[in-house]
Write a structure and sequence with these properties.
Chain lengths: ~475, ~50
């Protein structure tokens, strides 16, 4: 029972009116119809300009005032501190310890959703940014000058964040699965990793500057910031404003490594969804093969999962590159070096759709635990009851199996239609003749249909 | 204690593993779209040559 809250495919058996595979056919038809509609009615780029409008100087002044920023930073540092303390001092049971749910569900899954809706909400609460800013201000006060930072290597771009994203998921689903359970990550290991990451991040901030590192290398800032580009709220010149939805994303992928970040997001979610379903037999065969070659059980399991997570990354990258390569066949096409990053932002809604589809039910169930017994008894030792809810449970009846499936299908369809729309809009920039632009997007349509069907297949196997 | 294989069981058994091939049904829309793209691209190229 203790592992139940972390099982991603936690649901009673579905009772669908039609076979699950027919949903993939239906979703494909929706995508093809959207493609035709875009070709007919969307003939000029509309997402290149964000059309940002201020929401009022008073609101911005209040939100970005020093006391509010300091308070948000303090909240972030406090919560990170509680998570690390709970991880180090609390129970080893993953579902009873505040640390794992807070780090891997509330933060890792919650911020992408809320960033897409409300803008970059992580930025003010980022504990490392808060510490970095305080340290920088302290240095200025003592030394009387700004700290001298190294110039960030341009070619590195967002690659540190992409590699870091793979590492975070590796820690959770590969290193953590060494016990042969859905999520077996020891809270102590999670807390230690958080401490190591804090040291690394603060060192990088000292080297390259706090804001520079948050923009390019800090995993959580880059990852959550990527999803915030989809929403209609954004900050420009220190002012909060409203903008055209999806438009901000069109200029997000200009830094090197940005495509790798969004591809890593899709790949890691795919791997997590497939490891207990679609890839199960292949993973088991590889594991047996490695064990037969004399590798220890834990090492073989970790190596197998690492191989498959990298294969997922390569597979998603290959499908995307095939789509981009296909566009090169259209006359007047820009160079591949331009096309490759040029369409990377169209994968952001797909990454969000994959997250919603795969973790929506986990998030709903586990947040009940977070705001009930985990907050009351963060260490999970059964000795504290801060809010009187330590004995509360999780109500698994709030979502039926069918409701979860419909949310999953809806998320995938909406995400891919948005991706298709963004790709069509970008094509109109590269090919001013809308007919050429539409032809170039035949390949992106294939990419979107492939991702949709693959996503639904993973979910149907995991749910089945 | 083993049950005798009835004619109906022997007929059904080969279908017991059909679930392993359900992925084909998810691949078909991708194949259809890919075929459509290739056909459209070829016919457009021919038309352009004729023009």
């Amino acid at each position: 029972m203790s592992l139940l809250p972390f099982a991603h495919a936690l649901a009673a058996r579905q009772d669908l009116p039609i076979p699950a595979w027919l949903f993939a056919w239906g979703a494909s038809i929706v995508l093809i119809a959207s493609f035709v509609a875009l070709a007919a009615a969307w003939r000029k780029p509309r997402l290149e300009e964000a059309h940002w409008r201020s929401l009022g100087a008073g609101l911005s002044r209040a939100l970005f005032s020093s006391p509010v920023q300091a308070l948000c930073g303090l909240v972030g540092v406090f919560l990170l501190g509680v998570a690390i303390y709970a991880g180090l001092r609390g129970t080893e049971a993953p579902d009873r310890n505040f640390a794992l749910t807070f780090l891997f569900v509330t933060t890792w899954l919650g911020f992408p959703f809320f960033s897409a809706l409300l803008g970059d909400v992580f930025r003010p609460f980022n504990p490392w940014r808060a510490v970095g800013r305080v340290a920088g201000a302290g240095f200025r006060a003592i030394a009387g000058q700004r700290p001298a930072h190294l110039a960030y290597p341009e070619r590195l771009g967002r690659w540190p964040a992409a590699v870091g994203l793979l590492a975070v998921v590796w820690l959770e689903v590969v290193y953590g699965s060494s016990g042969g359970v859905a999520v077996g990550l020891d809270p102590h290991a999670a807390a230690t990793a958080a401490l190591v990451y804090s040291g690394y991040t603060l060192a990088m901030m000292a080297l390259f500057g706090t804001e520079e590192w948050c923009e390019r290398g800090e995993i959580f800032s880059v990852y959550f910031g990527m999803f915030s580009q989809l929403g209609c709220f954004g900050v420009e010149d220190g002012k909060l404003g409203r903008r055209r939805p999806l438009a901000a994303a069109s200029h997000w992928a200009t830094l090197p490594g940005s495509a790798a970040v969004v591809i890593a997001s899709i790949a890691t979610t795919s791997f997590d969804g497939a490891q207990e379903g679609a890839f199960k037999s292949a993973i088991e065969s590889t594991f047996d093969w490695l064990v037969d070659r004399g590798l220890g059980l834990t090492a073989a399991l970790r190596l197998t999962d690492t191989i498959f997570i990298l294969l997922c990354f390569a597979g998603v990258a290959l499908v995307y590159l095939l789509g981009v390569r296909g566009m090169r066949t259209i006359r007047g096409a820009p160079s591949l070096a331009m096309l490759r990053p040029g369409f990377a932002h169209t994968l952001i809604p797909i990454a969000l759709a994959y997250l919603v589809a795969h973790y929506f039910s986990l998030f709903v169930f586990q947040e009940q635990a977070q705001f009930a017994y985990l907050l009351s008894d963060p260490l999970g030792t059964g000795t504290t009851d801060l809010f009187g809810t330590a004995s509360a449970g999780v109500d698994y009846r709030v979502l039926s199996a069918n409701a979860i499936w419909y949310v999953q299908v809806g998320a995938l369809v909406v995400g891919h239609v948005l991706g298709l729309t963004m790709a069509h809009d970008r094509a109109l920039v590269y090919w001013p003749d809308y007919r050429d632009a539409t032809r170039s997007q035949y390949w992106m349509l294939a990419v979107m249909v492939a991702f949709t069907c693959f996503g639904l297949y993973l979910l149907s196997v995991a749910n089945g | 204690m083993r049950a005798e294989a009835t004619p109906i069981l022997t007929t059904m058994l080969p279908l017991a593993h059909i679930g392993h091939y359900l992925w084909v049904l998810y691949l078909l829309p991708v194949v259809f779209v890919a075929i459509g793209i290739v056909k459209t691209t070829i016919s457009e190229q021919r038309r352009r040559k004729d023009d």
